[in-house]
Structure formats: structure tokens, C-alpha cells
Design a protein that fits this description.
single chain
Length: about 190
């Protein structure tokens, strides 16, 4: 596979070239941090690959991401200062909105978890009932799941609870069980 980076290429890319005296080069903490950032940007050391196909897929995804980033940087370089500022402001706004949405989702998730606990529902239904940014729809779904859950619990209880009907010849004259039939049913020795 020609696209796979080998160890020697990785070491050269990361600055681990041997000095002419074959003595290992030492790095300051700042240099090491910069090298690690470069390696991460190139995609080294990310993820565990079970098969070559998944590795190749990940490499292709990273290459596509790198191409998109390069195109974005090229477009950014062609922009005027005003356009650059507007683009940066838009990206910052999008990032802020994503963080706010994440916080709101976590808060709604916590509130939904409390409502479900109050209704006696387990947390496994949390993702099934949660409707992001719509508390009323979430509450309605909790009610629906509660009804279904209760019905299923009732079915399970009824299936496990069975009544034992005595056989025909075990009743005494007064309608109850004879002592012999009762001992036999309980597994006691018969006198």
C-alpha cells in the first residue's frame, strides 16, 4: 500500500532525524509539544485500527479533511481584511452556538432523567424520550413510555403468577382439600 506512511517517514516528519554523530537529539518541552501537535495534525497516533480497510478509510477521511482545510486556507488568504474578520466572527459564532447547544442538551438530559426517576422509569429510556429543545414533547414521550413500560411489567407479572388448580379427586366432601391431597401437593409424606 503506497499510501501508508512507514516508521522512517514518520520519524523524519516528526523531526527525529539522527545527528551526524548518531547521537539522539534532545528536545525542550516546547519543541516536544510542537512536534506532538504536528504529529496530531498529520493524523499520527490516532485511533486503533482493526483492519487495513478501516485504517485506509480513516486515512482517506483525514486526507479529505486536510484538503478541505487547505482549500479553506487558500480562500481565506484571498479575502480582504473585512471578509476575514467576518468569516472568523461567523466561525466563532458557530462554535459558540455548538457549545451552547451541548450545554442545553446536558441540562435537558439531567432534567429528563429526574422526571423519569419520578415516574419510576429506568435511565435506559432516556435517549428514547429526549427531544432536544422541546420540553413538552419530551414530557409527552415520557408519559407514553411510562404507559408502555407499565403494561409490559403487568404482562410479565401475570405470566409469572400462575394459580395451581388441584386435580379432580383431591377434594374432600366439604369442598376443601383432603389431608392426603394437601400432603401430596406440599411434598410431605403421606400417613
Amino acid at each position: 500500500m503506497a499510501d501508508e506512511p512507514n516508521i522512517e517517514t514518520q520519524n523524519q516528519d516528526l523531526g527525529n532525524q539522527d545527528t551526524p554523530n548518531d547521537e539522539p537529539k534532545t528536545f525542550t518541552q516546547e519543541e516536544l509539544n510542537n512536534l506532538l501537535k504536528e504529529a496530531e495534525a498529520k493524523g499520527y497516533g490516532k485511533g486503533k485500527f482493526d483492519t487495513n480497510k478501516s485504517w485506509e478509510k480513516t486515512v482517506k477521511e483525514r486526507e479529505e479533511l486536510a484538503k478541505k482545510e487547505a482549500e479553506k486556507q487558500a480562500q481565506f488568504a484571498k479575502m480582504s481584511e473585512l471578509e476575514k474578520a467576518q468569516t472568523e466572527a461567523k466561525e466563532s459564532k458557530e462554535k459558540l452556538q455548538a457549545l451552547e447547544d451541548k450545554i442545553a442538551l446536558n441540562e435537558q438530559r439531567d432534567e429528563t432523567r429526574k422526571l423519569m426517576k419520578d415516574k419510576g422509569l429506568p435511565d435506559v429510556f432516556l435517549d428514547s424520550v429526549l427531544v432536544f429543545k422541546d420540553a413538552e414533547a419530551t414530557l409527552a414521550k415520557i408519559g407514553e413510555v411510562k404507559e408502555l413500560f407499565d403494561a409490559e411489567v403487568q404482562k410479565a407479572v401475570e405470566a409469572r403468577v400462575t394459580t395451581h388448580v388441584p386435580k379432580q379427586n383431591t377434594a374432600s366432601n366439604d369442598g376443601g382439600l383432603s389431608e392426603q391431597a394437601a400432603r401430596k401437593a406440599l411434598g410431605l409424606s403421606i400417613k
